[in-house]
Amino acid sequence: MFVLVEMVDTVRVTPWNFHRQLNETVAEELNKKLANKVVYSVGLCICLYDITKLDDTFIFPGDGASHTKVNFRYVVFHPFLDEILVGKIKYCSQEGVHVTMGFFDDVLIPPESLQQPAKFDEAEQVWLWEYETDEGAHDLYMDKGEEIRFRVTDEVFVDTSPTGPTAAVTDATQQPGQSTVPPADESGEKKEAPYTLIGSICEPGLGLLSWWNT
Fold this sequence. Notes:
The protein is mainly beta. 10% of the residues lie in helices and 46% in strands. The chain has helices at residues 22-34, 184-187, 209-212, and strands spanning 2-13, 38-39, 43-59, 66-77, 84-93, 96-100, 107-109, 118-121, 126-133, 136-141, 147-157, 195-200, 207-208. The strands form three sheets. The chain has a five-stranded mixed β-barrel. Strands 1-4-3-2 form a four-stranded antiparallel beta sheet. Strands 8-9-10 form a three-stranded antiparallel beta sheet, with no helix packed on it. Strand 8 (118-121) and strand 9 (126-133) form a beta hairpin. The longest helix has 13 residues, at 22-34. The protein is elongated, with a radius of gyration of 24 Å. The two termini are 28 Å apart.
């Protein structure tokens, strides 16, 4: 679930921090820059583990700060495929069951990866497993806050780096003084998660812990 990743970066230290130990300042700057951030194709950065190498420090013309190339190791949340994890149900939607790990919220178990047969209860906004027994079917609800065990089947990284402004389309019939900015509800876009785990519970022993502990 957690791995150590070797990284290289150039750390800028401001003049008012020159009186401090370089290692201490560099560690603080690296954590400010990376902690709780997703690095594309790497995972969710948690905290600095150690600094393995500090190169020479330079001060460039027009910038009073120092710049130091640093080799370091960082603790990263990046589960391997087929790893089994335990989280809590955050909420359910037509897209599937959304799970949180506490520090990481972007886990999705799609409908086809639930215990089958599965059904979405529109009124309660929860998924349920129609569990068949000799006495008939029993509806096992996947309620918010329940602990759930799942297998990681895929991961999705999305590059959310800022992009340049798009050119505005001008309407030839627009009257002078009329705004070209679309209303907020039309221009608003759903924010994509930079890192999403896709899970599955469609095998024995997976799903709500309460299903298998009784």
